[in-house]
Amino acid sequence: DESTAFAALVGPRSPAVWSEREGGKAALVAFNSFADMALRLLAPRLATKTVRIEGFVPFFRRIQQDAKKKLYPRPPFLELSKDPSTRPPIPDPRDMRLVKVDLAKEMNLMVGDKVRVLFGSEKGKSGIVSRIIRDKNQVIVSGLNLKRSFWHPEPGPGKPSIVSVECPYHITNVILLDPVTKQPTRVKRRYMMNGECVRISKVSGCAMPAPVPIGVSEREELWAKHEAQALVQEKSRRGPPKDDVFGNRERFKTLVRIVRDSRAKQRASIASEAQQEAQDLF
Predict the structure, then answer these.
(1) How many CB atoms lie within 10 A of CB 128?
(2) What is the largest CA-CA distance in the chain?
(3) Which helix (H) or strand (E) holds 29?
(4) Which of 174, 190, 196, 183 is nearest to 130 (CA)?
(5) Cα–Cα distance, 151 to 160 (Å, whole number)
(6) How far is residue 195 from each of residues 75, 106, 188, 267, measured CA to CA in Å?
(7) How far is CA 131 from the centre of its chain?
(8) What is the per-residue pLDDT across 238-247, written as a single tens digit (0 to 9) for each?
(9) How many beta carbons lie within 10 A of that of residue 129, not counting itself?
(10) Whole-model pTM?
């Protein structure tokens, strides 16, 4: 046999394979090693093989996928999640940071709502929210928690000498009132059929009325005038007197002597007038 003779010639360890020649006849081809055989057989395939990048999608394939999504749209809640199915690690409490919460948003409180005070000296009183201080979670209720603050910038008859201003309450110290029962209530948000988001009272189940429009109050205008005057006025003319009267003892004694002399003259003049009237009577 030709193959047996060729195998005996090249040796038992040399690999041999059958290959087709141009004429179509099969012949046994021997290689020096398995590496030569692998390179000779895989060279045409390696020359024509394309390198594929993981995750790469050709342009025409992306166009097909976009057209398919437009043709067969899928609701977002039916889309498959791409997140891994493994459970996320338990968070370390040492890495947690404090998060500032907007209590006005959580309590569904808006400017112009009618609220009631829960604690304090004005417990049980109601008022309208005129301003919300979100960075401090405080609210200012018009007409409540008044404190005397500054001198009236335009004093005159019929005007107070010291103006009072509303001091803020913490937002947890006030609560919304139900429009039907007039009792304190919490508020939830619900969407109507037309997509409008409304606030619903948990006590009566009715919708909360729209907030009352709030304008600029008279106290805020007076405070703005007071700030303008204080900034325009020179700093040296504000505060205590410029001269230290009680620190200079000689000057203080001189002022006391002048006051005593003036009072003595007044008493002497009054006594002389009384004596003159007595003489005229007798």
Answers:
(1) 17
(2) 183
(3) strand 26-30
(4) 174
(5) 8
(6) 19, 21, 16, 88
(7) 16
(8) 555 555 555 6
(9) 24
(10) 0.48
Q: Specify which residues 176 forms β-bridges with.
A: 115
- 8 A C-beta contact, residue 128 and residue 142: yes
Residue 169 tokens, joined? 């309450």
Task: Give the residue-averaged pLDDT of 152-174.
Answer: 85
Count Cβ neighbours within 10 Å for each residue of 132-145 and write b for 16 or more, e otherwise.
Answer: beeeebbbbbeebb
Cα-to-chain-centroid distance, residue 45: 62
HSE of 39, CA atoms in CB hemisphere, 13 A: 6
Token couple for 237: 């003319």
Smallest Cα–Cα separation from 174: which of 220, 257, 116, 104? 116
Backbone dihedral angles phi then psi of residue 130, each to the nearest 5 degrees: -95, -25
**CB count in 10 Å sphere of residue 109:** 20
Residue 11 has pLDDT above 80, yes or no: no
**Residues near 14 by beta carbon (within 8 Å), at least 6 away in sequence:** 30, 31, 32, 33
How far, in Å, CA of 87 to CA of 91, rounded? 12
- For 176-202, how does the pLDDT look when each residue is reduced to its tens digit (9 = 90+)? 999 898 899 999 989 888 888 889 998
pLDDT score, position 36: 64
Tokens 């505060």 -> residue: 239
